[in-house]
Automatic annotation (TrEMBL):
<dbReference type="InterPro" id="IPR018309">
    <property type="entry name" value="Tscrpt_reg_PadR_C"/>
</dbReference>
<feature type="domain" description="Transcription regulator PadR N-terminal">
    <location>
        <begin position="7"/>
        <end position="79"/>
    </location>
</feature>
<feature type="domain" description="Transcription regulator PadR C-terminal">
    <location>
        <begin position="92"/>
        <end position="178"/>
    </location>
</feature>
<dbReference type="Pfam" id="PF03551">
    <property type="entry name" value="PadR"/>
</dbReference>
<dbReference type="InterPro" id="IPR036390">
    <property type="entry name" value="WH_DNA-bd_sf"/>
</dbReference>
<protein>
    <submittedName>
        <fullName>PadR family transcriptional regulator</fullName>
    </submittedName>
</protein>
<dbReference type="InterPro" id="IPR005149">
    <property type="entry name" value="Tscrpt_reg_PadR_N"/>
</dbReference>
<dbReference type="Pfam" id="PF10400">
    <property type="entry name" value="Vir_act_alpha_C"/>
</dbReference>
<dbReference type="InterPro" id="IPR036388">
    <property type="entry name" value="WH-like_DNA-bd_sf"/>
</dbReference>
Length: 181
């Protein structure tokens, strides 16, 4: 997937400025696709020159004008073509898993350092899970009627929550195994 496709999806959900788009990436799209603000602005400029998005200058009181982006027909056509292309399974590359396998060749001090690293890594993913669960409560309160787009956003978020829970379970297993060595 290219960043262009993630931007097109986001702009079809809601047109906005580059800054607003970057905030959406930080808040929700970043759960499955990350991009820096610079990358987003650079790609938006290229997409505008390719005719995939349209930019409109919007004046603001007491602040510089902003450019609001929306998807042009060429951008919608590109997204539809991409949506219909088959998806290939992604190869998993997990540096921590290689380190865990390599722990068999390290001494007790090295394994102790690896335990500390796994614990740090686990805390990071606990925070991610907490952020996802908080976002779910904020964006998809129980009993709220959701439209098709919201239901699809929610199912992606639930996948992220399930992934983080699975990863935390695995990390607990790793820690138990390393401590038993």
């Amino acid at each position: 997937m290219a960043l262009e496709h993630a931007i097109l999806v986001s702009l079809l959900e809601q047109p906005g400025s580059g800054y607003e788009l970057a905030r959406r990436f930080d808040r929700s799209i970043g759960r499955f696709w990350t991009a820096t603000h610079q990358q987003i602005y650079r790609v938006l400029k290229r997409m505008e020159s390719d005719g995939w998005v349209i930019a409109e200058e919007i004046g603001q009181d007491g602040r510089p004008d902003k450019r609001a982006y929306s998807v042009a027909e060429a951008g919608r056509a590109e997204l539809i073509t991409w949506l219909r292309d088959p998806v290939q399974p992604e190869a998993v590359r997990h540096e921590l898993a290689v380190k865990i396998r390599g722990a068999a060749f390290d001494d007790a001090a090295g394994r102790a350092a690896l335990i500390s690293e796994v614990e740090r890594y686990r805390k990071t993913h606990e925070a991610v899970l907490e952020r996802y669960v908080h976002g779910e409560g904020r964006d998809f309160p129980a009993g709220t009627e959701l439209d098709a787009g919201q239901r699809l956003q929610h199912v992606v978020l639930r996948g992220g929550i399930a992934y983080e829970r699975m990863l935390l379970d695995w990390l607990d297993d790793v820690l138990d195994t390393l401590r038993a060595l």
